[in-house]
Amino acid sequence: MPTTINTPVLQARQVRKTYMRGAIATEVLKGVDLTVEAGEFLSVVGASGSGKSTLLHLLGTLDQADAGEVWLDGERIDQAGARRRDKLRNKSFGFIFQFYHLLPELSALENVLAPLYIASSIWAWPFRRADAIQRARALLERVGLGHRLDHRPCELSGGEMQRAAIARALINNPRVLLADEPTGNLDEDAGADIARLLRALNTEEGLTIIMVTHNLEMARTTDRVVRLTHGRVDLSSPIVGLKSVGGGYHLPHGEDQSVHLDRRDALFVSNGAGSSNPGRPEVFGVGHLPQR
Q1: Domains and CATH numbers, the chain
Q2: Is 213 exposed, middle or buried (0-12, 13-18, 19+ CB in 10 A)?
Q3: How many CA atoms lie within 13 A of 198 on its CB side?
Q4: 79-113 pLDDT, tens digit each
Q5: Within its chain, how far is the Cα of 42 from the centroid?
Q6: How far apart are CA 187 and CA 215, in angstroms?
Q7: pTM, rounded to two decimals
Q8: 19: β partners
């Protein structure tokens, strides 16, 4: 289906997901509807276990729903085949996680180049390599790591590793950036720097961002806040300081949008609440060469 001016960039329709542990079934998402417009910066909040990370993984085809539909630019993607999902994760979605998932043996520059290398055939790469390196260098400059191109992850701070992960997520010009607790493993200052960088990418470059976070102060800096409660979108419990609108909450016009992060939230998340640590880092286009 061709994209029109009224087509949302991303949409979930009655999405449901249940996980099984032996004979025990845990219904995580119970019919979630969510529409995201192009250029929107949306945050998803909620208690641990409310389904925030699960929803993000389903939107980005990291996982598949048991029922419901996911649409990207007017095309249904939740039922796409494995190769199509590989391509979507490599080109249409950019992913940022709490634990960075940089490859330890590669430099910052090489980590950023990895999705471009994966997207290219072995025969085409020598002809694309120079342009790819130029783009990767430019992105690392953009996120403030122009002086750390040749440093490996063990030589970078937490904030620097997350900046490198952001540059890697942007290397293929994704339609949507999906960020799962992007400041959860950082201290207050580094977290605030990442929050400002994400907001700048959204306002200056029109990048569509969906961010899962426990931090309401950070959520208040985004265009819209959606709360999940027990696997459903919850519009019954007001979020302090935000104005209720259809499909979420907005910051009232004229309010302060500066970033103030509570260090307690970051420590809470880093100790395990709401963390995302996919067991297969290759699924978001970094750790393997897809079958051709």
Answers
A1: 40-57+95-284 (3.40.50.300)
A2: buried
A3: 38
A4: 999 999 999 998 899 999 888 889 999 999 999 99
A5: 11
A6: 13
A7: 0.78
A8: 26
Between strands 10-21 and 67-72, the pairing is antiparallel
Structure tokens at 162: 């997350």
- Please state, in angstroms and rounded to a whole number, the distance separating the CA atoms of residues 34 and 77: 15
The stretch 204-233 carries a mean pLDDT of 90
Alpha-carbon gap, residue 45 to 225, rounded angstroms: 7
Q: Which residues pair with 45 in a beta bridge?
A: 227
